[in-house]
Amino acid sequence: MDPIKPAKVVKEALEKAVEKVADLVTPPAPGKPAGVSPPVDPPNRPQGPLPRKPDQASPSTRTATGAETGAAADTRGQQAEYLTTAQGARLYDTDHSLKAGERGPTLLQDHHLREKITHFDHERIPERVVHARGAAAHGVFVGYGTAAQVCKAGFLAEGVTTPVFTRFSTVVGSRGSADTVRDTRGFATKFYTAEGTFDLVGNNIPVFFIQDGIKFPDIIHAVKPHPDREIPQAQSAHDTFWDFVSLHTEATHHLFWHLSDRGIPRSYRMMEGFGVHTFRLVDAKGATTLAKFHWKPKLGVHSLTWEEAQLINGIDPDFHRRDLADAIESGAFPQWELGIQVFPDTPEQTFEGIDLLDPTKIVPEELAPVQPIGMLTLNRNPTNFFAETEQVAFHVGHLPPGIDVTDDPLLHARLFSYLDTQITRLGGPNFAQIPINRPHAPVNDMLRDGFHQHAVQSGVAPYKPNTLDGGCPFMAGADVGAYVEVAQPVAQSVKQREAPASFADHFTQPRLFYRSLSPVEREHVVRAFTFELGKCYEQSIRERALRILANVDAELCAQVADGLGLPAPEATKPVGEVTPSPALSQIGQVWPTAGRIVGIVVDAENQASLDGLHELRQAINAAGLTPLVIAARGGHLEDGLEAQRTFLTARSVEFDALLLAAAPPPAPDALPSRDDKAAAQTAVDPRVVLMIEECYRHAKAIGAWGDGPTALLEARVAPDDLGIVVGDSPAGVFQQVQELLGTHRVWDRFPATVV
């Protein structure tokens, strides 16, 4: 008998067994710190840097002047097996300073100590004054070609794929603040186009607090922490902010968006983006059109409840940045469709009576539909946060041929401010040569020297005109892709510091926004105004803010005044009728559920609760969602099945929906002395009961089978209530829960009182 044949048979049988187990083992939960799991004991054999994780990418390996190098993506990373100085000299020790004897003083000649400490002392750059706390990702943008009739920009042509880097951020807080505070969010995308870099630097709110950029320091100084105590951090619920906005009524429209659910998005992946300003587009024949940019998330627009946001700020201040990174790592790539609203480029620059140069105004989508022109997909996480997310420099003046600015006074101030702030933050005028900022188009700018000059320019004539360098670089014409500003007529008038009369209506559009919301969304606006004004110390500021609300909506004003214990004032301006815009509401549609997080409560001591769990996790993963099993203890449950969360570590706010496979009794660690959440005396583990109660009042879908309905009853949740699914099979329950997730929440569970 051939001795090799049995071995081959055994090998094939083992391979089939492994494949069978693999069929049952679903992908691990995202969040693995490194690409390779570490050993228990410290490594003792030299090896080079480990490869980066599959979900990560780095800036394109280009020279400081935009040329492709062909180098591997990890070329800029650390090299070799041994620790060295910054100049490459190998080190034998980095734990001890060089001293005069074992106990002697440290010697000045210790160049390694000085290099290490000096670099540490300077490794922080000044944080952004605004948008300091951010998260970002690499991706691609694919043009549809539908913009060709109004814009000649090459990256918008059909099928053109452009690398991008997108950064999301909060506005008010410092780098160390929390993610889920009530705030406006930045939505900035750097397109590395073949015609030069294009930065679309917008927000998740389509309007701004001010109409003229000269007031930007005022609004930011007002909303930042009070200068005496440096509190509150990353909050608008305080006196200086409300003092300013109650005196400066042009902020009212943005204020309503800010205090709606838009101010606390569920995820960056479920957040709209807006270019805010009106831009001028130029087609191939030189004709111009005015336009506003919109980012529409494929997952729909979805927000946190106020209580969820407060809980998350304490439980996981990194909630949004973790959500973005985990979604990309798990393959649930976020997508947004870029669209434009287009308007005739008339001398008045208005549309349907709306001044297009007023950044506190929108044009309802029912009047000017958003036309899709391309798709953004974020598919790689940064390799290094500082080198990429922190050092990326956006500028509204980074424009490709085909896109020009208008005379919006807020936009014009930004054209100066962004360039000025990059020079301060990034150490000089050469910030565009930092790898994440390098263009993917050839650069020959004749700009020389300065701090952090990476380019090694040749030639002797960095000036124009010249003959010593053969006349290079030459001027380009429009026929070879030069950026040529639109020859827009400039009004003949006197110099003055005034705003157009058409900027003066500060209340009609806030009323349009408020009356366009669903009743439950209006409830949230009432609560937000009541909470924020209730945190103000000075009653005069609260009374002044109520006068503004009276000019927007009498019912809203009355509800907030009642919550503050103050009389509701009468309107001082006529409150006009508005036609609601359904596009302004986040509620009422069905959206994809990819990337949602589903918690599954099991009882490891009850085998019945584990039956069908492998198949359930496979079904959840196949649907593009992430299942997280929650048990009394973490780790191994059975072959191919692990608990990713415990009753101690899990909290309802992490999950978009909750599935109950069991009604686990109190675990050994369900002790008030060990876990405050375990203080209640219940037949089911009190942490599980708390999760159910929170998911219920946050209007989330809950499913149960087996012993799960018992846990519902312990939490005083009726099995036949709205958004509660009880069934016989895990797969059947999940299917119904997934359908409920398509509408984000079960708002009908709590009928609104406002109309």
How is this structure best described in words?
- The chain has 755 residues and is an alpha/beta fold.
- It has 3 domains: 134-433, Catalase core domain (Catalase HpII,  Chain A, domain 1, Beta Barrel); 504-584, Catalase, four-helical domain (Hemocyanin, N-terminal domain, Up-down Bundle), CATH 1.20.1370; 597-749, 3-Layer(aba) Sandwich (Rossmann fold), CATH 3.40.50.880.
- 25% of the residues lie in helices and 15% in strands.
- It is built from 17 helices and 21 strands.
- Strands 1, 2, 3, 4, 5, 6, 7, 8, 9, 12 and 13 form an 11-stranded mixed beta sheet that branches.
- The chain is globular and about 90 Å long.
Descriptive tags:
6-stranded parallel β-sheet, metal ion binding, globular, Rossmann fold, disordered N terminus, alpha/beta, 11-stranded mixed β-sheet, catalase activity, peroxidase, Catalase, heme
CATH superfamily of the largest domain: Catalase core domain
Count of discrete domains: 3
Beta-strand portion reads 15-25%
Main sheet, how many strands, which sense, barrel? 11 strands, mixed
Apparent shape: globular
Indicate the structural class.
alpha/beta
Number of strands: 21
In short:
With 755 residues, this protein is α/β, with parallel strands linked by helices. The chain is 25% helix and 15% strand. It has three domains: 134-433, Catalase core domain (Catalase HpII,  Chain A, domain 1); 504-584, Up-down Bundle (Hemocyanin, N-terminal domain), CATH 1.20.1370.20; 597-749, 3-Layer(aba) Sandwich (Rossmann fold).
